[in-house]
Every structure is written in structure tokens, then in C-alpha cells.
Amino acid sequence: MSQNKFSLAVDVFENDTELLVVADVPGVVQGDLDARIQQQRLLLVAKRADGVVFERSFVVPEDVNPEAVSATLKDGVVSVKLPKSKPIVRQIPISVS
Asked: Please, which contacts does 78-81 make with residues 24 or more away whose CB atoms are closer than 8 Å?
């Protein structure tokens, strides 16, 4: 049976400390949901029991800390939190020549 692929509808929210990606995935169980960051892209893939596949990918901003990304699945809704890295501020010494 061939799989039908559809774009996953998502909402994206942003504040000073994180991005939040939220998607409705009714009928999808944890084992049929894949979320990963690869080459600065977030990929979400949800497979339903009837063979329908929903997927969506996003470019992850450089200020997101990929090691701290987390995802939860609750009541048919997947939420992916992408915490932003704290900006690095470094004083640069200026020498006189």
C-alpha cells in the first residue's frame, strides 16, 4: 500500500527565550511520530495507522540550542520546544599601536 503524504499544519510561537512548534496529530501514537534536528532543520513526521503520513520541516534559527530541544505528545497534540541560546557577549580588548 502506498503512503499518502500531506503537509503537517503547525502553529509557531516565539518569545525571548524559545520557539514553540505545536501540531495537531490526532490518531498518532508516540511510536509513529518522529521529530529530529538535522543540518539546521527541524523535521516532524507523523504516520497514522491508515498509512497517511504528515510531515513538515523548518529551518532552525542559529540562536536555537539543538541540544536542549524537547518534544511532548499529549491528547493528539505534539509540542516541540526549541530553547534559544543565551547570547554570548565578550568584551574585546582594544590595543593601541
From this structure: 78/22, 78/23, 78/25, 78/28, 78/33, 78/35, 78/44, 78/46, 79/20, 79/21, 79/22, 80/20, 80/21, 80/22, 80/35, 80/42, 80/44, 81/18, 81/19, 81/20
Supply the pLDDT for residue 3. 59
Q: In the block, which residue shows the cell 543540518?
A: 39
- Per-residue model confidence (pLDDT) at position 1: 45
Q: Which regions of the chain are under pLDDT 50? A: 1-2
Rg of the chain (C-alpha set): 18
Distance (Å, rounded) from C-alpha 26 to C-alpha 17?
29
19 and 10 Cβ atoms separated by less than 8 Å: no
Rounded to the nearest integer, the mean pLDDT of the chain is: 90
Per the structure block, which three cell numbers stand in for 20?
A: 514553540
